[in-house]
User: Fold this.
Amino acid sequence: MSESVDTLRERLQTALSAATSGEAVEQIRVDFLGKKGVITALLKSLGTLDPEARRQAGQAINSLKVDAQAAIDERKEALLDAADGVVIDVTMPGASVAVGGLHPITRMMYDLDDAFAALNFEVYQGPEISTEDFEFDHMNFPPDHPARESMDTYWIGNASDNRPTCLRPHLTGGSVRRMLQGPPPYRFVYPGHVYRNETTDARHERAFVQYEALIVDRDVPFTAGKLLIDTILETVFGRPVKTRMRAGFFPFVEPGYEIDMECQVCGGKGCSLCKHVGWLEVMPGGVPHPNVLRAAGVDPDQWTGFYVNVGLDRLVMMRYGIDDVRLFHGGDLRFLRQFR
Amino acid sequence: MKVSIEWLRDYVDLPPDLTPERIMHDLTLSTVEVEGVEYPGRALAGLVVGAVTAVEPVPGTHLHRVMVDAGAQGQRQVVCGAANVHVGMRSVLALPGATIAPKGAGAPLKVDVVEMRGLRSEGVLCAADEVGLEAVFPVSGERGIIDLVDVVASPGDDLAGVIGFDDAVLEIDNKSLTNRPDLWGHVGLAREFAAIYGLVLKPQPQSGNLPERTDLLGSPDAALCNRFTATVFENVEVTTAPLWMRSRLARVGQRSIDLWVDLTNYVMFATGQPSHAYDQAELSFPLTVRSGRAGEVLELLDGSAPDVNGLPCIADGTDVLAAAGVMGGARSGVSDTTRTIYLEMASFDATLVRRSSQRLGLRTEASARFEKAVDSQRIDLGLAHMVDLVRTIQPQARVTGHQDVVNKPTQRTSLTVDLSFIEARLGKRFGASAVTRALTALGFDCREAGDSLHLTAPTWRSTGDISLPADIVEEVARLHGYDNFAFVPPRIDLQRLPRARRLPLDRRLREQLVATGLQEVFTYPWTDEALLPITMAPDDLFELSAPPSPAQRFLRPELVPGLLEVVARNQHLEEAFGVFEVGAIFPGRREARSLAAALIGDDPQSLFARAKGVLESLVRNLHLHPIQLRVGRHGQGWYDEHAVLTVVAASGEEVGLLGRVNARARRATGIKRGDVVALELRVDRLREYATRENRYTPLPIYPETGFDLTFVLADSVLWQSVYEALSPVDPTVRAVHWLGEYRGKGIETGHRALSLRVTLGRSDRTLTAEEAESVRQTVINRVRADFAGVQR
Assistant:
């Protein structure tokens, strides 16, 4: 044998370490394992040995041959891997992804729609231009009620309708439109913009969004309204929120309620946000007034129900800790993009 | 409205352990919203009664060295500048540590022991306005320290206790009281507490028989006045009201004026019944209530003289004296020389008082009560309180005449309610006796007949408040306490909802627009006049009667201008972005639903392509009926007439526009740089398929082939015509794709190099290279023939 197995093994290692290209490694393979390679030659030389020595040397050379093939393959892979190298500063900031976003109020509206869809409520959408009969007469506002005369409502001076026409000042009027479309029972939610002629500041806007839910059925005890209230508040805050109902007066409900929720800032202990009472007024609600049901063609002796109506602007402000309601219509992308 | 707990105790014995906070909670849950509790005594901490025992002038100054006996607080030396300080007077001594607000000091000051002119001053003798008590101790004539003339107290006593300020005052939200005119006085609230806590109301005073006269009143107009009483008190003095009365008035926020004004105010805060005291010597009988006549004005104390034509007025033989239920005129008051009082206590029509108060711009305690409809019987209670108070305070005075004209007495409301109805609506069994007990406590008369309850409401609940069975449900529920009802889930029959289908189109549109990278914004429905399209005549627009500002009196006929303003507002922060809105528009004085988007960036071509991609993605992903984009010159409005498309529905109806925003529109909305492409679609004109309409196209079995080509074409050759010409050029053409365009160096002006890809395939075998090449030649020839296009 011109070279021992161990020497060959060493020489192969040295040659592979020095090889820096696929071609060089291939040449090494040919030199060692090719038809005229040194290992092949060694195997051929076995015939000259006596049987015992041949057996021993054969084992050693075969083992060398297997290892040599493995070392060559591994070196090839390593060189291919090395060719794939790039330089990346892994601490650089992530690139911004150009995705759009819903307005935070729309986001909240859809969250609520989904929650109510699970209770089999439909979504109703009514017109923003409405008339005094829907907004006030059907809502049981007496003919001389101050809300009609007040400047709160944006009346339209040149409507072709001969009824006094306005931008809707609340959603509730639209519930009668929905009820007039077909017989009870009803289970629907009703989101939308409403408009009031107010002086704007951090807490007051002329355009805002309300969300209303109405259930009308034969047997709806008033405590069932809690289901609507809890559905809304759990959706907003992601956890059960303690609420209470107390006496409140609105022309379109009888009995009417103010619904308070436990102050989420102090947990009901009392803080400056809740004026130290531990509760925040969050929405009105109540049983549809018999005159409202009558206006909708529904017999109040047979049917009853429950309304809740919540200001989405205020809920969104509570959800995210927003302190100025005017931001919602300000169109400032720095604000709007925070709510994806 | 402020309510004194101490005052309430005159009418009902509230349990001593009932804290003001508990009362606040209970009243809020059952009746009206209490916004807070005030403790007026807290502001008076450190103020005690001090008796002046010695006064010596401090030479060379206007000051006095005063010795004050402060009882347990000892003898104190005080340096005092007040002119009215004298030996034997009792005044208010602020001890070191107390907080006062001296005139001219600006911020409140903490009293300390100080040296003045070498003299130690161990406290301050206070004027009324220094301790916030001007309402109790009105300053008349020269200002000085408080003189506690009519106070029963010993030196050193806490001032708060001495003047009755150791009280708790509830602040009630007036808005929550609008439907409860009976609660606009302490007696009414005491009645409510009696019902809530199961207490007994103390007996109210009685006026007894008053000597009748028939010459005091004319014929008050029944349309204006439900009831009018006149009562003459002779031998009166116009002095200062007693301290306890001034103190109570001050605690509920009413300043003391003189005895008779204070009496009318006091009776109003006690019973809710306003009244007015005239000096009889100034009147010519009889008084009446009538509408103001043309040219008539009411002279007010502030010197103004509003027109009262058509308003309900109180008048005597000569002139108008008062705007009925709102305010008395300058001639209606009393003075030091008044010896005979003519007291008007009346009940006016609620609506007319409100209108009158609105027209005059005068909101008074009286009008606030009358406009909520006060029952006519309230006068009996008010008059009884008045006569009783006068008897106590001015025993020498005599009622010498009384006249009562009743036009429209308040009728008690009667109604019948079934117990089963109440119980069904409340989801709870009460039993008849519990219900009648609650209603009786509220003043109702109840008669049971089987399941039915025949009820008669008290007069004070009969002016509109109680009229329906639902009102009775509320009374029972609130007295039971809303918190005491267990949750009862509603039971409903599960049935198909009329419109329980997929998500509304509005939502799907918004979510798809978000997926294309646009941000949703809200804008206002009114638009700036300057942003109206020239083609819009005011007749085509809704106009607000009282707009947010004169320039914003029209409701928007489209959404795009508002979006352009949003773009302008954000332009300083970012160079390329897109916004959208889905909302109501009002073109042609009709409401419609619209969708608009605006994209800003540097390159108009790529913006246009992106906007078009957005539009196409809506149609595809929302399963809308197909639309066509018609190349059209939309010469007016916001769009560049050379870069605008009209969106047309299959029906031929115009659905919207997509175009580059022209320079004039960019200037009008304040967009300073970049290019903007906008689109607006009438959502109400989009038609959705009833369900998903995609059709399966089998995947190609044999490999497709194809080729890319570039042609130089005149700009007048539109892609669409090339596309439409090449698609049917050979049956093996599967698709013709836009690859890109190039203008500039090497390309003649007015031309572009247009690159396209043609994909070929057959369903029965693979196309040969020769076949492909043959189609390629056909395409080249076709482009040359139809469009004079030269292959590049």
Notes: Chain A touches chain B through 78 residues (CB under 8 Å). Chain A has two domains: 2-85, 104-339. The two ends of chain A are 76 Å apart (CA to CA). The longest helix of chain A spans residues 51-83.
